[in-house]
Each structure stands twice: as C-alpha cells, then as structure tokens.
Recover the amino acids of this structure.
C-alpha cells in the first residue's frame, strides 16, 4: 500500500485530500513515514529505518505503525 497519488503532503506533516477537501496535521515522524510510503519503501524497511533512527523497541514501532496505517486507511488516504 502507498499514499494515493492525488494526496498532497509536505515535510511539516500537512496532509490534504483534494477529493474530499479534508486536511490533516501529523507529527514529524508520521510525515517521515508518509514520505517513505510515497517512495514505495516496504513496511518491513520502514520499521527497520525507524528502529535504527529512534530509541524505541520493535513492538512499539510495529504497533504505532499499524495504528497509523489504520488511520490512513480509515481516512481513505491509501491506494489499494
């Protein structure tokens, strides 16, 4: 899965869905994840990169990433 191509994002965490007019704010880590998704980085690689960059355990990264992806799905921001 990846972010839909028509979804506008920036490095500050702003997300805009022109199809619905909805906009969202995210934190810098979420913006980083979205950028990796745009680059079609696998979820396994995203987890690996986050574990290397931040001092957090693997289970926390997995849960937080799964929760974030769930929010993206719920808000119709991901392509199939």
């Amino acid at each position: 899965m990846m972010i839909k191509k028509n979804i506008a994002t920036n490095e500050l965490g702003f997300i805009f869905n022109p199809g619905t007019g909805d906009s969202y704010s995210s934190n810098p880590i979420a913006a980083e994840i979205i950028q990796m998704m745009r680059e079609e980085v696998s979820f396994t690689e995203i987890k690996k990169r986050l574990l290397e960059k931040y001092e957090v355990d693997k289970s926390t990264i997995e849960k937080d990433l799964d929760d974030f992806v769930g929010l993206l799905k719920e808000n119709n921001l991901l392509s199939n």
User: Anything to note?
Assistant: The first helix runs from residue 28 to 38.
